[in-house]
Please model this.
Amino acid sequence: GEEAEEEQSNESKQLLLSLPKERGWRTNHLYWFQNFWCPAKEIPAIISCQRYFQAQDSDIILATIPKSGTTWLKALAFAIVNRKRFGPKNHPLLTSNPHDLVPFLEYKVYANYNHVPDLSSSTRSCDPRLFGTHVPYASLSDSVKKSGNNNNNDSGCRVVYLCRNPFDTFISVWHFLKSARPASLGPLSMEEAFDMYCRGVIGFGPQWDHMLGYWKESIERPHKVLFLMYEDMKEDTGFYVRKLAEFLGYPFSLEEEREGVVEEISRLCSFQSLKELEVNKTGKGAVFNIENKSLFRKGEVGDWVNHLTPFMVEKLTKVMQQNLGGSALAF
Ligand code: A3P
Model:
């Protein structure tokens, strides 16, 4: 009831006071919580999710760091697993933003203090259940991490991670701030933002730890975690749509291949087609309370060359070498 809610919010107020903080991007501050930089509002939601979320074997968790292609991944996964349910004429993706079809655990599902959402209704209409998240692997609920640990490749909740070149992700976040940063917080200059980014001070960052965390899991448990790259997917969408479908347990049949279903899904979820839909041109509120159109800027690989100075390129290259250099994650 209300009292429990009040208690819970006091609990989180106390917690916030105890956490190191930095200036935020879209919010006043970011807090150092569970070894990542987190906006205040999401902290109780993440705690609730860790306490209450019970993963089912058929669940699919789509994980990203913000601005690395979450919207695209949600659209593709939704289209793949629901392709028997919806034809190209009446497809929900034509009238709903992908974020309205695949909710974020921390922004939506567990957004209310101490409130355990009834996920059974979504189970009935949506099997398998699809969720999005930005939290690092270590902060996923135990039931997500532990399910499917029986070495049976056909069971257990699955996690898909989409990774994007940090140069492009920085530029994408930077532009996104124009719609997402409230004027009341005052401006954030590109120099300041870049400095924060290089230090890993970004929502759910350090981004290097985020990527490496999921990368490591994808190597150790490839049937459990699939690691995808935005750039690869742009280059050969069909190949990765097939790979994603197989990983999720929904491989395309020969007949579907012949009928061009892979191409149909790739087209439906492409930047161009999503961007042109009415819901994405004039709709609002799929994430935060901003216009849906700010989720579709350019959708290209390498746009950073148009925005970063040679100094910035040199700096970020060095930072990436330091943080990712020893790993297979080279960009
Ligand atoms: P740009 O700002 O570089 O254009 P997220 O969905 O995680 O918020 O990421 C947003 C980025 O993905 C934006 O990048 C956006 O344009 C791009 N994007 C959105 N929909 C896409 C799609 N269907 N295909 C490819 N990129 C897409």
Q: What stands out?
A: The radius of gyration is 20 Å. The mean pLDDT is 93. The pocket of adenosine-3'-5'-diphosphate is lined by residues 64, 66-72, 75, 168, 172, 175, 269-271, 274, 295-299, 303 (CB under 6 Å). Strands lie at 21-23, 29-33, 36-38, 60-64, 130-133, 158-163, 225-229.
